[in-house]
Amino acid sequence: MDTAYFNDTHEQARQTARKFIATHVSPYIEDWEEAGEFPRELYTLAGEAGLLGAGYPESLGGHSEGDIFLKVALSEELMRSTSGGLVAGLGSIDIGLPPVVKWARPDVRDAIAPAVLRGEKIIALAVTEPGGGSDVASLKTRAVRDGDEYVVNGAKTFITSGHRADYYTVAVRTGSEGHGGISLLLIDRDTPGFTRGRKLRKMGWWASDTAELFFEDCRVPANRLIGAENAGFIAIMTNFLSERLMLAIMGYMTAEIALETSIRYCRQREAFGRSISGFQVTRHKLVEMATQVDIAREYTYRCAALMQAGKNPIKQVAMAKNFAAQVCEDVTREAIQLHGGMGYMREAMVERLHRDGKLLSIGGGTTEIMKELISKQMGL
Length: 380
Fold this sequence. Notes:
Blueprint: H1 8-25, H2 29-35, H3 41-48, H4 68-78, H5 84-90, H6 93-96, H7 98-103, H8 106-117, E1 123-126, E2 142-146, E3 149-160, E4 167-173, E5 182-188, E6 194-199, E7 210-221, E8 225-226, H9 232-268, E9 270-271, E10 274-275, H10 280-308, H11 314-339, H12 349-357, H13 367-377
Parallel strand pairs: 1-4
Antiparallel strand pairs: 2-3, 3-7, 4-5, 5-8, 6-7, 9-10
């Protein structure tokens, strides 16, 4: 345990998450990956284990509110499932629910959040649009006020937990063009005019449910507005900070698992009369992989420490996400190379890790968008 950042409570949480993965996930993950989904019941099991409520108010059924490193510890252990898709699916709570907890009307928040934290209900965040990608400020889905309702028209895509969610935190345009005209609405899955399209088949994250969403004269009660009208962009950006930190964690953990798997394989695999770890070129490659993983992890910890201290490290978190995503891509690629032909087989863990890792330079804002964000923070 790194005592500079983690305490005994965090270690206990790790043990809980480790047991959860070993009992409820690891024996089945290969089948879930091939099936393209994991059982809905896993949310309830995770809720019962306290894995979903970490970081949320006790009044809503959560615990350890504001403890960033508890979330880090749990995220690291959940990644031991070796499935980015599973972690993303369970983790849709942490991008869909925070705006509701922070800014929704108390009666709406209290009616929804506890069931989500127990794993009885699922929530998703719907921001990305078919023509928009990372350009959040240009989103087109429009909500027009009509009496006590908003009438919503538009579409979303690449939405994690998009098919099975019960509630959706949806970014809509209620005002003029640009970031100043965006609001957030909480929309129930059975709202008339709201439909879910096809399940999207992806390069990686197979076990996660990813969907298209469509709104056609969808009427949403005005009390489902999250925060003030036309103030949604700030809420989305606040959400992005924690989401990007989690993506950085996914990056170095995917790389770390690939490294550990490669070390074991290189010790066991023999070529030319000895294990391939006996060759200098192999050892040096593993050392370089380990160096990159350690740097990505430690810098991400530093970003988490800044957040824990109440700072708003937009630049640093964007840097951490970019760096961890690149480390993930490089290390998983080298892991496949070290495995040789076996690394190209679907049965090899490193094959899945490489596919899953590619998403990290795209999701939560692309690498290129992150660089633009960083440059602005630098005053360029």
